[in-house]
């Protein structure tokens, strides 16, 4: 099941998933951000955060963002990535859990180093304030 979910996630990140995140996220999905203290609950707010994060991390099409490792097992995926944001190196992991219907029920993002986290935080804040 997780293989199909991650294939659709990659299509989303490549801008090739019809309907965007709507069919990929469960209605009660929970998003854990590396820069927000409380979990974000529900499809609408998770969509808002993931759209802003994908633009902040991936930048323009053909940008520096790339997944470097994937571990898939059962209902869980761990995807390691690298990118640069405002000239700062960012390394992180997406930890994704799905349900039996093939929808993401939990999405966690962890980042390093501190300078990269700060750059992502600044970008995300600007994008969320601007509505995406």
Automatic annotation (TrEMBL):
InterPro entries assigned: NTF2-like_dom_sf, SnoaL-like
Residue ranges constituting the SnoaL-like domain according to the UniProt record: 9-106
One protein family per Pfam: SnoaL_2
Protein name: Nuclear transport factor 2 family protein
């Amino acid at each position: 099941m997780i293989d199909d979910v991650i294939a659709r996630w990659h299509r989303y990140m490549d801008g090739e998933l019809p309907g965007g995140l709507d069919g990929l996220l469960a209605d009660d999905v929970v998003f854990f951000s590396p820069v927000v203290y409380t979990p974000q609950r529900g499809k609408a707010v998770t969509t808002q955060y993931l759209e802003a994060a994908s633009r902040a991390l991936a930048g323009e099409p053909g940008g520096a963002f790339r997944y470097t490792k994937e571990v898939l097992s059962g209902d869980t995926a761990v995807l390691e990535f690298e990118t640069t944001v405002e000239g700062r190196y960012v390394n992180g992991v997406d930890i994704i859990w799905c349900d039996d219907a093939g929808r993401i029920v939990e999405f966690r993002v962890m980042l390093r180093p501190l300078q990269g986290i700060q750059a992502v935080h600044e970008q995300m804040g600007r994008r969320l304030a601007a509505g995406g």
